[in-house]
Amino acid sequence: xxGEKPSVELCKGVNGLDKVVLRDARGSSAEVYLFGGHVxxxxxxxxxxxxxxxxxxxxxxxxxxxxxxxxxxxxFSSHGNLEQHGFARNKFWSIDTDPxxxxxxxxxxxxxxxxxxxxxxxFKIWPHSYEFRxxxxxxxxxxxxxxxxxxxxxxxxKPFSFTFAYHTYFSVSDISELRVEGLETLDYLDNLxxxxxxxxxxxxxxxxxxxxxxxLSTPTKIAIIDHEKxxxxxxxxxxxPDAVVWNxxxxxxxxxxxxxxxxxxxxxxxxxxxxxxxxxLKPGEEWKGRLExxxxxxxxxxxxxxxxxxxxx
Length: 313
Ligand code: TA6
What we know:
It is built from 3 helices and 20 strands. By secondary structure, the chain is mainly beta. The structure holds 6-O-phosphono-beta-D-tagatofuranose (TA6).
């Protein structure tokens, strides 16, 4: 409720899995499971849920939770011997009790720092040492901020390369009522056509069928306009040049056991990512990837919010 003190609480979630609940003074909140470092909830100060989590999500490790913000690392989409989206979302993270100083921009006072480091077993599937620090924070006005800092700690002098995505599932009123601004005229790789490269049309993206596109060299800001809810999600990203847009639509929805047949109507994934150009770190080097999400009122008809202004503002 508004007026409460900001709080960070470690408690038990679904199936007794540990989760951290962040609450700010205005009443906004977020939840992140230690399993997967997985954000599963982001609510407004009126307690409205902004992220989509499937009603059929199974909170049973090592299967990743279907929805929220899965972390895709050290790879996005399949090749080699790793799972399609890597293993970070399938592992148990810890609370980082001694994080290195965070950049001065951490204006938020309501945050939790998590850390993931490889176990001996992990070396068998990905033979590298790393420290992956994730800060989940509630910013002023209820924004949700995720900052990933990945450091190569290989003692053998070896560099490593990875691809990455915040695989964010947004809760929407009706996929056919949605527009996405900020990706028009960009090149993309179409996962539904063997990753062939195309150029997007010249105006806002709307949805009439399944989509699975990796947009390349995208702007810092992307807007998702939900007419029915009179709300616009604004993604701001840094260190993440690409953006994936995915909706499984009806056929693929039916084929996913942890996804309701009709749930595709009420979600859209727009994923800040680094895919086209893998990131390479030498030992001692650190990469930072930051995502900031906000939900702003947008009564389009009154012209109160012009997405172009949001994107350029
Ligand atoms: O982000 C789009 C995508 O790569 C799709 O191709 C689809 O596979 C989706 O991710 C879900 O993947 P997951 O491994 O979470 O079932």
